[in-house]
Amino acid sequence: MAGEVLNATMSAAGGRDKEDINDPVYLRIRDLVYQTCGIYHSEEKMYLLTAACKRRMATGAVKATNGREYLDLLTNIAYKEAETRALLNEITIGETCLFRSMPQLNALKNVILPELAQERSKIGLKKLKVWSAGCSTGEEPYTLAMFLLEQKESLLKDWTFEIQATDLNDRSIETARAGIYGDYALRNTPDEYKRKYFVPAEGAKLRVRDDVKARITFQRLNLNDDSRMLFMKGMDLIFCCNVLIYFDMASKKRVVQHFFSSLMPNGCFFLGHAESLYQVNDQFRLVHLPGTTVYRKPGPEPAKAGKP
Questions:
Q1: DSSP label at residue 43
Q2: Are strands 127-133 and 160-167 parallel, antiparallel or unpaired?
Q3: What whole-number distance in Å separates Cα of residue 173 and Cα of residue 211?
Q4: pLDDT tens-digit series, residues 167-187
Q5: pLDDT exceeding 90 applies to what percent of the chain?
Q6: Which of 99, 171, 208, 257 could lock 188 by a disulfide, CB 3.0 to 4.6 Å apart?
Q7: Exposed/middle/buried for residue 116 (C-beta within 10 Å: 0-12, 13-18, 19+)
């Protein structure tokens, strides 16, 4: 979902219909969405939810022509699971690009990975496990895969790495697995990376090479699903950029606690540049790095690269 939940245009929303926004039916649908995935629509954002519901009804794929009928569908045991997933696909429409945050990549290259490599060399463990949480249409995990492949030529020589990429949106996961991108998604991608890690696709688009795709496992995951989150263990790096801004405080705290548990000691947690864990979680240690910040799970003090 890195996925950002886009602000639907006013035309798509049909305008801010006060009657719909304050309709108890849509307020109930808001509660169902919140209970399912932790995304909360405040009064100012209710028009996005009503617009998503109306788009579902307008497709003709559901037997509902108004909010009351649609709520009945969402609460009908025969349809609720499939239709709730379909509604979440409408709500969590992502927009991002490859190589979106160079300061984070520079921090990895210059500080975090050298420290990790030196620490792991003491025990002979040369494996890196990364989680892109809210990966949207795949731009972030593919960026990380290409970046780490570059590091394998020097800093991470003889290392292996795996990337788990998850998102709530089924359609986004399908797009991510295809790995086909146009100019807009590639606008920040260096030309040398385009030549090295992509092949031509239809039109003027490019497709990620299969050997890059092989480094990533894409799967649908609801961050609000405690039982599934418990299986995400042993991570060295977690990226969850511009996802938690759509959660209320209670949901943020629960999800971030899962992230903390998922990380190895001294593992690093990355948020979007305007996000923080202030009043959300005090177990992480905030580390200021050139151009960015990172939250580190406390553990033995990492060795500074180049020092015993």
A1: G
A2: parallel
A3: 18
A4: 999 999 999 999 999 999 999
A5: 81
A6: 99
A7: buried
* 72 pLDDT above the threshold of 80: yes
Cα 307 to Cα 128: distance, rounded to the nearest angstrom = 21
Domain boundaries, the chain: 10-91, 102-296
What pLDDT does 23 receive? 86
What architecture is domain 102-296? 3-Layer(aba) Sandwich (3.40)
pTM for this structure? 0.89
| Per-residue confidence (pLDDT) for residue 11, from 0 to 100 | 40
The pLDDT score that the predictor gives to residue 1 is 53
Q: How far apart are CA 264 and CA 272, in angstroms?
A: 21
70, with CB counted inside 10 A (0-12, 13-18, 19+), is buried
For 296, other C-beta atoms within 10 Å of its C-beta total 17
pLDDT band per the 50, 70, 90 thresholds, residue 7: very low
- 94 closest CA partner among 166, 223, 1, 170: 1
- What backbone phi and psi angles, to 5 degrees, belong to 55? -65, -40
Relative orientation angle of helices 67-74 and 80-91, to the nearest 10 degrees: 120
- Outline where the chain has alpha helix (H): 10-13, 18-21, 24-37, 46-58, 67-74, 80-91, 102-107, 113-121, 139-151, 170-178, 191-197, 210-213, 226-229, 249-262
Residues 31/202, Cβ–Cβ less than 8 Å: no
Q: 């210059």: which residue's tokens?
A: 110
Asked if 87 and 53 touch (Cβ cutoff 8 Å), the reply is: yes
